[in-house]
Design a protein that fits this description.
The protein starts with 30 loop residues before the first strand and ends in an 11-residue tail after the last strand. By secondary structure, the chain is of the alpha/beta class. The protein is built from 6 helices and 7 strands. Helix 4 links the parallel strand 4 and strand 5. Strands 3-2-1-4-5-7-6 form a 7-stranded mixed beta sheet, with helices on both faces. It is 28% helix and 20% strand.
Amino acid sequence: MRRVRQHVNPLKSDLLEIEVPRVEAPPGRRLEVELGSAEAHFLMDLARADPQGMYVGVEIRREVVDRANRAARAAGLDNLRSVFANMSVDLPRLFAAGSVGRFHLNFPDPWWKSRQQKRRVVNPLLAQDIHAALAPGGELFVETDIFDIALEAMAVLETPGDDGRARFANAHAPWSFLSENPFAARSRREKQCDAEGAKIWRLLYRKAADRRSGSGAR
């Protein structure tokens, strides 16, 4: 089997110009998206538990996307698909505004070296794109076993936008973590952390309501 790279620089020029499809859920079906879905083990658990939902994985490694789609077909999960795309730049083209019920971001790459930290995915631009794609009251779930990344994500998500309004509301309490995973799914990395007794930091945010109209803020 051909070796697939585990870490890919999302800022490489050829990965900033991927031709991506528009992804839409059939009428009446909830759309949930995992960013950096790898082999989509987490999404397969969700898709099995909820056949009426539609589950989409966004993954930057084409070979892994192909492998995940083959596995979904073999499992008979017609409500699950993976797409080759770069979450750092492609979300506005992948998803219409207000179309996603929930995003999941499980164990993003740490990029430890100082010169690499600009590659970390949870940043104000990604938060803006996620906010735009979320339906009113939609959610963003983040988990990581690296405390610094959890704090960085929390700082981005709890900081108001340029207009001074909050874009996300912490579903637990401001500046706090969830004690456990609230979903019927576990990623491969989460299972490994559980087996090793490693601490996992979990965050759940909801799209904040527009204070003027009560609808999702833009």
